[in-house]
Specification:
Elements: H1 2-21, H2 30-37, H3 55-58, E1 68-74, H4 81-85, H5 98-114, E2 121-122, E3 128-132, E4 135-143, E5 147-153, H6 160-164, H7 177-188, E6 193-203, E7 208-217, E8 223-229, E9 233-242, E10 251-261, E11 267-276, E12 285-293, E13 298-305, E14 314-331, E15 334-355, E16 359-378, E17 390-403, E18 406-409, E19 419-422, E20 425-434, E21 444-457, E22 461-473, E23 477-491, E24 500-501, E25 505-506, E26 513-528, E27 536-538, E28 552-554, E29 556-569, H8 571-588, E30 600-614, E31 626-637, E32 645-653, E33 665-671
Parallel strand pairs: 1-4, 5-7
Antiparallel strand pairs: 2-4, 3-4, 6-7, 8-9, 9-10, 10-11, 11-12, 12-13, 13-14, 14-15, 15-16, 16-17, 17-20, 18-19, 20-21, 21-22, 22-23, 23-26, 24-25, 26-29, 27-28, 29-30, 30-31, 31-32, 32-33
Length: 674
């Protein structure tokens, strides 16, 4: 009994001496106490008085097992606390182990970075470890990687805030690789930008992410003319055009145009268009176009809130159109009838999206009104044309699914500029119903199935396929339309690499340098139940080179085109490009001090086309194709916006009505796609 008393007195004296030797006290963070206070069993010896005890008293004895009493995770905005705790072996009421805790912090960092948070980290300097007699209190702060500074370069005309607003992050936001990649894609879709690069770096001084945005603007002369002549169609125009009005991202177009097609009357058009992709600094897009012509005026107005980013949950659009157009009917390559079409249309649509960036489902509601009236101007007794006046109003819904992925490519559809290639899939089903209850001319059901898919193997083999089937039916199927197209690209055939970029021009790789691409494209259009109401045409206008503009007519057609494309580069073409740039710069000197780099691109092609067209009277015959072969040149000014592709082609038709003559037909003109 005496021994117990002496030991107790000794402990009291010892504690009193140590307390007087330590002058600093430590307070426990309230956040660390929160979780512990919720536990059901707390010893009386662990009362609130322990908050002010000294460091020496809090530390457990050497060799004593420490229990984790509280675990607080802070600044985790992108993932829940439960998701992060599931990654850790350290947990409340578990044994505290520094080695295990360090491994847990590495697992958290690895998890963030695997999910695209490239600069996320758990800073051990911000780790709070409080050791008390009753256990250990842990506080973990997650740094998800904040954007600290955004630097924009390369913009000469475009205002910096116009570039910044297209980015999916701003100062203070959490940085992710998915936001960076999609921001690049958004910038590349702008008609006034030829190339865009978004890089991110960690700034150790500010402990934040610095974003570098580098763009390559495309040049555009506001005033200009275009004399476009070919053996099928002629037109010339004078225009004022600016795809980036005062650097605001808005575009405008004012044009006077005269068009003359083979066998048609010359038409004069006065056209004005204005586009504002960020109406009132929102994500609403306004696009309006007015066309004045001899036949009658046309007006198109679009108000759209697109799914501008894959993170957006909804989209909507409203479109109004009214036009007067000439409609021609052809029989055996000759025009037989001429109609004047008065068309009024309205379409409204709203969609709701579900899912993440990679996989999305959506549902949409839509309403459509289309009123068409035809007036006969010329009529042939041998014609089967029976164009039908309609006033149809439909309401319906759409369900769809899309898997979105993009790949940066060049020389597929454009010559020189960067382009986005869809490497995913999209498909949707739309159902609608027209009824006299809402002023339709009759009751009618409508269904449409649309599919789209992009596929790639490595960086050289690409495929893009689209399919659409629509049908109208009452008690029976009235009309149906099937359209399908697939294009295969095998690019950089001989593995020569990039011979040209907008930033550096042609690479130095000898006198001549080449980039080879093989293209195979198949398309078909088939109408069912449209006899006399509509027709399918086949000729040079549709891709069957060597034949007349609308050489063949029917109800169903197929066309296969094969091309070998060779982009020319090397020192010779680099010198040509530099010489033309010097001349253009001298010409533009009175108007601008900016060096005018044209970016002249030339390509040689060899092609073969095989087509079929038939209808109810002339069935499909495999032994009667419409074939042609040929060669040509294509060129483009890759540093300019809207110049299109200039073409000169020599095509040799191999089948009637031109056979057996092997005389080439020359086509020269301008198109928008490579």
């Amino acid at each position: 009994m005496c021994l117990i008393v002496l030991l107790s007195i000794g402990e009291i004296v010892s504690v009193g001496g140590q307390s007087s030797a330590v002058s600093k006290t430590v307070s426990l963070d309230e956040s660390l106490l929160t979780e512990s206070s919720r536990e059901p069993e707390v010893s009386e010896n662990h009362s609130s008085e322990t908050v002010s005890v000294t460091e020496h008293e809090k530390a457990p004895l050497e060799g004593e097992v420490s229990v984790v009493r509280s675990l607080v995770i802070d600044r985790n905005e992108s993932f829940s606390e439960q998701q992060i705790r599931a990654l850790m072996r350290t947990d409340v009421w578990g044994v505290y182990n520094e080695t295990v805790l360090k491994s847990d912090l590495e697992a958290i960092t690895r998890f963030y970075r695997e999910n695209g948070y490239r600069f996320a980290r758990v800073d051990e300097e911000q780790l709070s470890v409080k050791k008390f007699v009753d256990g250990v209190y842990l506080g973990i702060e997650v740094d998800e990687g904040r954007v600290g500074n955004i630097i924009v370069t390369g913009n000469i005309q475009t205002k910096e805030d116009v570039i910044r607003r297209e980015l999916l992050f701003m100062e203070g936001d959490t940085y992710t690789e998915a936001d960076r990649e999609e921001s690049e894609q958004i910038l590349r879709r702008k008609t006034y930008i030829g190339a865009a690069k978004v890089d991110a770096q960690w700034d150790e001084r500010s402990k934040s992410v610095t974003i570098h945005v580098t763009i390559r603007e495309l040049l555009s002369f506001p005033l200009g003319g275009d004399l476009n002549l070919n053996n099928q169609k002629r037109y010339w125009l004078l225009q004022f055009r600016d795809p980036n009005l005062f650097g605001s991202g808005q575009s405008t177009l004012w044009r006077y145009e005269r068009i003359s097609e083979v066998g048609e009357k010359t038409r004069s058009l006065v056209r004005g268009r204005y586009n504002n992709p960020r109406l009132f600094n929102s994500h609403w897009n306004f696009d309006g176009e007015y066309i004045q012509k001899r036949d009658g005026d046309s007006l198109v107005v679009l108000l759209e809130r697109p799914q501008y980013t894959l993170k957006s949950r909804w989209s909507a659009n409203v479109r109004f159109s009214e036009s007067v157009n000439p409609i021609y009917w052809y029989e055996n390559a000759k025009k037989t009838d001429t109609f004047e079409q008065n068309l009024q249309g309205t379409f409204a649509n709203v969609r709701r999206y579900f899912g993440d960036r990679q996989q999305q489902n959506y549902i949409g509601l839509w309403a459509a009104s289309r009123r068409s009236k035809y007036v006969i101007l010329e009529k042939s007794s041998a014609s089967d044309a029976m164009l039908e006046n309609r006033d149809i109003k439909r309401i319906g819904f759409t369900v769809g699914r899309q898997r979105i992925a993009y790949h940066k490519a060049r020389f597929l559809r454009r010559m020189g500029q960067e382009e986005n290639f869809l490497a995913g899939s999209q498909y949707a089903l739309s159902l609608g119903y027209a009824s006299p209850l809402y002023a339709s001319d009759r009751s009618e059901s409508y269904a449409e199935l649309a599919l789209g898919s992009g596929w790639m193997n490595g960086d050289r083999l690409f495929n893009l396929t689209t399919f659409a089937f629509s049908t109208n039916f009452t008690t029976r199927v009235e009309r149906s339309l099937l359209q399908a197209q697939t294009a295969w690209f095998y690019t950089d055939v001989f593995n020569t690499g990039n011979i040209y970029t907008l930033e550096t021009g042609f690479r130095e790789n000898g006198l001549f340098d080449f980039h080879q691409t093989f293209v195979a494209q198949f398309k078909t259009e088939m109408q069912f139940g449209w006899s006399g109401h509509s027709q399918v045409l086949l000729g040079s206008f549709d891709g069957l080179r060597g034949y007349a503009y609308r050489q063949f007519s029917g109800e169903k057609m197929m066309l296969l085109s094969l091309e070998s494309r060779t982009i020319f580069g090397g020192t010779v073409f680099r010198k040509i490009d530099e010489a033309l740039a010097a001349v253009a710069t001298a010409v533009a000197r009175p108007f601008s001090d900016r060096r005018v780099h044209l970016g002249v691109m030339l390509s040689g092609i060899v092609f073969a086309d095989i087509g079929y067209i038939w209808n109810g009277n002339h069935t499909f015959n495999l032994t009667r194709p419409k074939r042609s072969v040929g060669f040509g040149l294509r060129g483009s000014l890759s540093q300019f916006s809207g110049t299109g592709i200039l073409r000169v082609e020599f095509a040799f038709p191999l089948d009637p009505p031109f056979s057996p003559s092997f005389k080439p037909r020359i086509f020269y003109g301008q198109e928008r796609a490579f």
